[in-house]
Design a protein that fits this description.
Layout: H1 22-43, H2 49-56, H3 60-81, H4 84-88, H5 90-109, H6 114-141, H7 150-176, H8 180-199, H9 212-215, H10 224-258, H11 265-284, H12 290-310, H13 317-343, H14 351-380, H15 382-418
Helix pairs in contact: 1-6, 1-7, 1-8, 3-6, 3-10, 3-14, 5-6, 5-8, 6-7, 6-14, 7-8, 7-11, 7-13, 10-11, 10-12, 10-13, 10-14, 10-15, 11-13, 12-13, 12-15, 14-15
Length: about 425
């Protein structure tokens, strides 16, 4: 069995002011807003996919490729830059990534075809991958010892809240703005530029040290405690992020199939329903034991999949939204339980790389099944692809609930054996 020599936590400027919460409040809010804005930008194109399909005559497979270009590039960025902020510091990584993110918004606003859309999403994925782990690690650096768990909760709720906000804003702009495919991206570009400027005025929360170039080599060096947690909850993470990827990329198409006469905004609102339910669930279950939350969330995938499929058998649009809401509950419960299990008792120097590993698993689960669903839709139709996808997600979720039950039983048995 491999062993790991414990390392002392990296000193932080905030360790000298443990009793002063005002020195940490503003940077904490800023980093939380960065995570939320990054994920808002990631979901903003979802309501626009039907528009792109109609304007540029794109297939379902092309749409999932556009969606997955972002996710897979983000995955590569996490593998290479996930620990970069541990070496260079949080600030320089965040500033550079936010400038790249703003540039990707400009490219999205000016896109005139699938190729330009894919290129813009590739740049966006690279920027988001670099910024997500840095901002998430900064939140952990800024943890208030009098409010333990707040950083992990924020890392759980900010992404889903951001995705909900991005979908809602884009959907409203489709309805009311004169140029919806431009306006939403211009607003986001300005926001990212402002956040980059704000980051330059914050104190550094990590202690830069040598090895930045070496850290760019793709690898996942997860501490043993986090590794055990990821193994226990990993199948559940795969199930809920795969379900999220389906709703994000093909949700609007599913709405058009079930209710052809529904307004265009209905397609975007189905993913908003999922992400809003996820954000509310993260907050509601913040005091529930992480194993319980993750296990219950995994089981919720089964009725979510069944309700979604019932929409294809006469239940109609309400079943699509009901399935999305249940999927959101599952997503929120599993993601916040998984993050709390994974981030528990981490050394300061392991925070960014562990978050990167979690997001690697998440986005791999979100992108590859979505591409497979797009290909299946191209060859067999959306109805058949949706059935196969829902059944696969439900089976994964049942396996996850079983794995978590076994893990919890082993932990309880071990604790009992340790009693004098």
């Amino acid at each position: 069995m491999p062993t790991v020599t414990p390392r002392a936590p990296a000193p932080s400027p905030y360790q000298a002011v443990r009793t002063c919460t005002t020195d940490r409040a503003a940077p904490f809010v800023l980093n939380a807003s960065i995570v939320a804005a990054l994920l808002a930008a990631s979901s903003a194109p979802t309501p626009l996919y039907p528009h792109y399909q109609d304007a540029w005559h794109l297939s379902a497979l092309t749409i999932t490729v556009v969606f997955s270009a972002y996710s897979l590039t983000l995955l590569v960025a996490l593998l290479t830059t996930g620990a970069l902020s541990d070496h260079l510091g949080r600030r320089p990584v965040l500033v550079g990534a936010l400038v790249m993110e703003a540039a990707s918004m400009v490219l999205l606003a000016s896109a005139d075809g699938a190729g330009a859309l894919i290129a813009a999403r590739v740049l966006q994925g690279a920027a988001t991958g670099a910024a997500t782990s840095a901002a998430g690690a900064a939140l952990l650096d800024l943890e208030d010892p009098r409010r333990p768990g707040r950083a992990a909760l924020t890392n759980s709720i900010s992404p889903v809240a951001g995705m909900a906000a991005g979908v809602l804003a884009a959907t409203l702009l489709i309805r009311f703005a004169p140029a919806p495919t431009v306006t939403v991206y211009v607003v986001l570009a300005v926001l990212f530029a402002a956040q980059a400027v704000a980051v330059t005025f914050t104190a550094e929360t990590a202690r830069p040290h040598a090895g930045a170039l070496r850290s760019l080599r793709p690898e996942l060096d997860v501490p043993p405690s986090a590794r055990r947690a990821l193994l226990a909850v990993g199948t559940g993470v795969v199930a809920i992020w795969a379900l999220g990827g389906f709703y994000s990329s093909l949700g609007p198409s599913l709405v058009r199939l079930v209710a052809p006469g529904a307004p265009q905004a209905a397609g975007g609102m189905v993913f908003f329903t999922l992400t809003a339910a996820a954000a509310l669930t993260v907050w509601t279950l913040r005091r529930v034991a992480p194993h319980t939350a993750a296990g219950g969330g995994s089981l919720a995938v089964v009725p979510a999949a069944a309700l979604t499929l019932s929409a294809l058998h006469g239940a109609g649009l309400p079943a699509v939204y009901g399935g999305a809401a249940l999927a959101g509950i599952a997503f929120g419960a599993v993601s916040q339980g998984a993050l709390r299990m994974t981030l528990a008792s981490l050394d300061a120097r392991d925070r960014a790389v562990t978050l990167a590993a979690y997001y690697v698993l998440s986005y791999l689960s979100m992108s590859l099944p979505a591409v497979a669903a797009g290909a299946a839709t191209q060859h067999y139709g959306l109805r058949t692809a949706a059935h196969a996808y829902a059944v696969a997600a439900a089976l994964l979720a049942v396996a996850a609930a079983a794995a978590l039950a076994v893990s919890r039983g082993r932990a309880a048995h071990s604790a009992h054996d340790d009693l004098p």
